[in-house]
Design a protein that fits this description.
Layout lengths: L19 H47 L3 H10 L11 H28 L5 H10 L16
Amino acid sequence: MGQHVDGPEERHRRPAGVSDDTVEALGKLSEALETVERARGHLYSLHQLIGHADLMLDDAVELFRSAGHGEIADRIDRDLLGRNVIAGRWTFQIVEDFDDGYYALFRELDRRARDELAGGRRHLYEAEMKERRRTRGRPGHEARPGAQG
C-alpha cells in the first residue's frame, strides 16, 4: 500500500536554508515577470490589430475611389497605408525588439535568480500560500493533482 502524502510535491518545497525573505523576493520577481507576460500578450494584440487595420485600409481606399472620392483615397493610400507605426518600425519589428531585448533579459534574470537561490524551483511563494490557505482533508483542497483529500 502506497504512502499517503498530504503536502506539495518536492519541486514546490522550499530547499533547506532558503529564507522567508528570499522566497518573498523570488515571488515578487515572478509576479513582475507574470505582469510582463501579460504586457507581451497586449503587445502581440497591438501587432495583430494594427496589421488587420492596415489591411482594412485596402477596402476603405477602394470604397472611397468607387464613391468618387479619389483625392481622399489617394491621401490614405499614399500617407497611411503601410506607414511605420513608430519611427522606422512596423509592429513586427517592435515585437522582435521587445522579445529579443527586454523580455529575454527579464526571463533570464528570473531563471538565474531561481537557479542560484532555490535550485530552480518555481512558485515557492504561491506553493507555501496554498499550504497555509487550503483545508486539509477537504475535497477540492488536495495538495497536488491526483492526491486524495
